[in-house]
């Protein structure tokens, strides 16, 4: 059994002269919540449609659960691309019942999923009266019919209010933990993805910029000491010998060092005692947003913290 739920190899899609997805190679392990982050128009939705077979690639390959070109394995995949296609005049249960006919679902499964997404108590209320968050949760419940092992969600919290966003986030983490479903989630809202993702794929202009785990991101975004001094080479040796560090960078007469920032005053004293003149020492508070922006070429941010446009 492959440890990967989804891998792509050089996946490419051209629309005329426009290169929408360019040599995309992603790796999603079973059990991951994979946050696919990038600005609008970066190729996220196109990549998902290629994975699902809704579009034919110009070149490249998709591998699902260790197999290539096996259409039967797609039964293990559920999806919600763009907006859910629901029956507005039907209740949540009636919608689920209609879709369950296609995959041989049972009433027990329908009731379980409606309870899982928090819609078990909606009764005969028609979907046209649902909030956007309720519709999104129902769309995810529909996508879960047939017990998929991998779920693709395209911008699942887009246009939702804060309560709706939290409801969808909580539901995704519950489904991942309780049902073992692997998630491939696209969004341009970093602030939402960073709350649930275990792995990140950064995409820009159709190309994968970087893949990294939450632990790797935490390490790269750790707070650090910024020190400008008269002898950075001697200073860094002294700090490493005395306090250690996960990494450091030297730029001209300044050092950025990832060490215990609570030691800042002690570091300053050690340098001064060693006759190293310190002109500046400060703590740099790193943010996920800054890291992602730097990896995507300092693109403009708008519409609130963590939203790429």
Topology:
Elements: E1 4-15, E2 18-24, E3 27-29, E4 33-37, H1 44-52, E5 59-64, E6 67-68, E7 77-80, H2 92-103, H3 107-116, H4 132-143, E8 150-154, H5 162-179, E9 182-187, H6 190-193, E10 199-204, E11 207-213, H7 214-220, E12 224-229, H8 232-243, E13 247-251, E14 254-258, H9 264-273, E15 278-284, H10 288-295
Parallel strand pairs: 4-9, 4-10, 7-8, 8-9
Antiparallel strand pairs: 1-2, 1-3, 1-5, 5-6, 10-11, 12-14, 12-15, 13-14
Helix pairs in contact: 2-3, 4-5
Characterise this structure:
The protein has 309 residues and is of the alpha/beta class. The chain folds into 2 domains: 210 residues, P-loop containing nucleotide triphosphate hydrolases (Rossmann fold); 64 residues, Alpha-Beta Plaits (2-Layer Sandwich). The protein has 10 helices and 15 strands. Strands 7-8-9-4-10-11 form a 6-stranded mixed beta sheet, sandwiched between helices. Strands 1, 2, 3, 5 and 6 form a 5-stranded antiparallel beta sheet that branches. Strand 1 and strand 2 form a beta hairpin. Helix 2 crosses helix 3. The longest helix is centred in the middle third of the chain and has 18 residues. The protein is elongated. The two termini are 40 Å apart. The relative contact order is 0.14.
Low-confidence segments? 298-309
How many domains make up the 3D coordinates?
Answer: 2
| Highest-level CATH class of the largest domain | Alpha Beta
Class by SSE composition:
alpha/beta
Distance between the termini: 40 Å
Average pLDDT level: 88
Order of helices and strands: EEEEHEEEHHHEHEHEEHEHEEHEH
Radius of gyration: 24 Å
The CATH architecture name of the largest domain reads 3-Layer(aba) Sandwich
- What is the CATH fold-level name of the largest domain? Rossmann fold
Strand % is 25-35%
The biggest beta sheet is recorded as: 6 strands, mixed
According to CATH, the homologous superfamily of the largest domain is P-loop containing nucleotide triphosphate hydrolases
Number of strands: 15
- Give me the side-by-side strand order of the main sheet: 7-8-9-4-10-11
Helix content: 25-40%
Task: Give the helix tally.
Answer: 10
Shape: elongated
